[in-house]
Amino acid sequence: MGVIEGTYHAKSGHPGGSLSFADIFTYLYFKEMNIDPKDPKNPDRDRFVLSKGHTAPGLYAALANRGYFPVEDLKTLRHIGSYLQGHPNMNTTPGVDMSTGSLGQGVSVAAGMALGAKYENKNLRVYTATGDGEIQEGQIWEALMFAAHYKLDNLCVIVDNNNLQIDGEVSKVMSPYPIDEKLKAFGFEVICIDGHSFDEIEAAFEKAKTVKGRPTAIIAKTVKGKGVSFMENQASWHGTAPNGEQYETAMSELKAQLASLEG
């Protein structure tokens, strides 16, 4: 709900890809990562890099609900003077490990973090989220090659495979498929999952922690705009904010889903 809250009050932002990754954001911040909102700069914490930085509304919602800052502040998304801007800023936003926004760079940063942890003999893990449209960027593949070369088994790259980007279907704009075979060829342990199944998400991250001598890639098949009926599988919601009527409908649907889970 934080994604809708933020983008509605900002009158801008990227709800589609934030919602497609929402279940994985939730699992990472509430179950998987070794983190502490009361000590966000702990040098031994796990790291997360949102390479597809425009989906910051999803990251902010996870951070707020995890206790890094007040949930109420999500309404200040993209406002002048707010620390919650359109892309993550590690200098102003509690819990953000890397400033991102220019697509294609986050995986490189995450790989560097993972290698640095190896050099310092730190027992921490580094996670990074990239989009299936973002992996059209050449720097992504340089970073993947780097990660495999240095045997970064403390690195987990998660590909949000919703098959939609701002210009339409990824497969039609510039197909990266078969993503799994390409990542295997680059030396990765590859796990393919339903990115909305918590059982599959959990199994994938548990398996990733057992992999030795090479990095892991989790290819998560997801639905852009997941959870909001009129946003699902619609490229037009890549970077469009809901209006008042759409906001009410979306919040009603998400609240109903939350109630069914809690019930």
Automatic annotation (TrEMBL):
<feature type="domain" description="Transketolase N-terminal">
    <location>
        <begin position="9"/>
        <end position="245"/>
    </location>
</feature>
<dbReference type="InterPro" id="IPR029061">
    <property type="entry name" value="THDP-binding"/>
</dbReference>
<dbReference type="Pfam" id="PF00456">
    <property type="entry name" value="Transketolase_N"/>
</dbReference>
<comment type="similarity">
    <text>Belongs to the transketolase family.</text>
</comment>
<keyword id="KW-0786">Thiamine pyrophosphate</keyword>
<dbReference type="InterPro" id="IPR005474">
    <property type="entry name" value="Transketolase_N"/>
</dbReference>
<protein>
    <submittedName>
        <fullName>Transketolase</fullName>
    </submittedName>
</protein>
